[in-house]
Amino acid sequence: MNGKVLHWSYRDFRQMPEELRACCDQVEEVYLKENFIPSVPAWFCEEMSGLKFVCLAGNLIVDVPEQISLLKHLESLNLSQNLIEALPKSIGKLRNMCSLKLSENKLTRLPKEIGALENLEILEVSKNRFSELPVELSNCHKLKELILDDNYLLCRIPTKLFTIPQLTYVSAERCNLVLLPFVVNTTTLEHVRVFNNYTLTHYPIALEKFMQPSYESFTAVEPKRIPKNCFYQRVSCDAIAQNLIFPIELTTILDRRNATNAPSSLVEMCLRSCNCCNNNAVWSDSWLPDNLSRRLRNGPVALCGSIPCSKEVFSECFLGLVKRRKQSRLVVLSVLFCSKLCADLWFRYNCDIYEELNWVLV
């Protein structure tokens, strides 16, 4: 033991060492990496409540006890390279948590209570079995790094996660992403890595600045990898062989070249108005239909691509498909607008940069 730090990694422990109990009031950091510990006993959480840093990576841990919430001073928890299949809801009570590392486990979901980790800055969950992520994670307003690589069942990341106010780095390489978000936090976001997702068919123009240097890295889509249980809208584009995939929430997708500038529906206007209230309590109550409250919890699909407008797009949009004129390789970029007027204005001012592509709904 060095001061308040205990290094007991690589010692072939077959269970949590009872010797820890003798120094429970002195230790703040515990390193038990690469042992054979099968579980975290309740006494560890109850008697070591002063811990700030715990590293249990590379063990054989299957379950995390509910008592984990007793480690109320915990700032960093590393449980990577274990056999964990689920996290307890009590994980959300670790309000001082800044770093949570869970890579290389057998997790299929994160509890929605993880959204209560108000000080969380780093979340690593690579090489698990996620098919979805809780939208409540967007409540972690201090989150800066989100690492999701090698979750081969993950087909979509909630759009609201890309609007976290301090987010700087997102990596979701080698997943099975079908869709990318149309709304991103351009103020702080510096790196978005989504390469080797062979089910992607287009790239929202909001993410273009992160993609442009690596256009040559894009690989042709593999339609057979698109999950059958993933619901989406499909668009056929003359420029490419495969259909393009869009969120199922977009129930009305219009082409500016053959549609009138009709007003938004009452449902769309209602969703925009409720979203402006920014009060979760309003739509968590039962007075709103479930399909509407769910839309509000998940947030808008996009913001209007015409920057002076930037109205929320929930279920109705005018779609533009383009490619860069001076780019040798065809990469389809997509942009959504709230009205025909906004779409026409955008194309008028960007016609020298982008070439508009023909498309039809399938």
UniProtKB/TrEMBL annotation:
Keywords: Leucine-rich repeat, Repeat. This is Uncharacterized protein. The keyword Lipoprotein does not apply. Gene3D superfamilies: Ribonuclease Inhibitor. It comes from the Eukaryota. InterPro entries: Leu-rich_rpt, Leu-rich_rpt_typical-subtyp, LRR_dom_sf, LRR_domain-containing. The keyword Nucleus does not apply. It comes from Aedes albopictus (Asian tiger mosquito). Pfam families: LRR_8.
